[in-house]
Amino acid sequence: MDSEDAATYLLELDKIFEQKNWKQKENYVDVFNSLSKFSEKIIEDKSEYLLILELLREFHWISLNDYYNKCRALLINLISDLNHRNTNIYAFPIIKDKHQFKVKSGSFVSYLMKSLLETIPNGEKFKFEDINNFIDLKNLRFKKSDVFILVDDFIGSGETLHACIKEVNSINTLLVENLRILTIAIRKDTLDRINKKYKVYYNFNILKGITDYNVGEDIENKKQIMRKIENRIFLKFEQYSLGFQESESLITLLRTPDNTFPIFWNKYKKNIDTNPPFPRYEKA
């Protein structure tokens, strides 16, 4: 990458941080420095830096400080849809049975919502209980007038959601009959699929970063550009190329989902002396 292209990339990167208010984020300096080093360590030509900038313009950076307002907005929308007969709200994280005793993002979101309930208009009229494992769910005395919500910060392919609903249904079909889903972000294709059956509350609808923003030959051309970068900077990543199952997601939260393009979160080869901007650090 020549010096002129590198300078243009850095100028455009700074514009993106300004336009998206990312300089208000608590660790923006570290992220900006990491992305700046792309021009030295990762990007080789103009087509690559143009693609990186294109993806960053659509990227969603949900920091810890954002969770308060996003979860509060979800609760406000939920409460406004309920009536005086719905007095009990039971929240459960979107998890698989084998993960029920691990710390998952859905448990954090559920706990945060519980703490926020009294700040919501008419929130004092409802009792909110967070349940974190399927064993306790079996002991729940659930009435038809109660509301059951599944919560998380991000829903990707919907595979974990489907497994969770199936397990919940085997415990008590009434829970699924009164089910609503709350999430900060959800992939658009997943939303389109599950929205036909369940009421979904969300803050962000996540499109595919290349496929949904391009047409015709541009789609495959840009995928090939990204694959070329991936082959150069990763040792082993096949199942995560373009994001898990080619999700092409553009989002980071408390933990970056593996649905996001791995260039933003996966560890690079040892000879690439820089870290990803939103590290997840799992073997890929």
Automatic annotation (TrEMBL):
- The membrane-spanning stretches of this chain are none
Pfam families, A to Z: PRTase-CE (PF24390)
User: What range(s) does the PRTase-CE domain occupy?
Assistant: 45-280
Per the record, the domain of life is Bacteria
Show the InterPro entries listed in the entry. PRTase-CE, PRTase-like
Q: What is this protein called?
A: PRTase-CE domain-containing protein
In its UniProt entry, the species of origin is given as Chryseobacterium endalhagicum
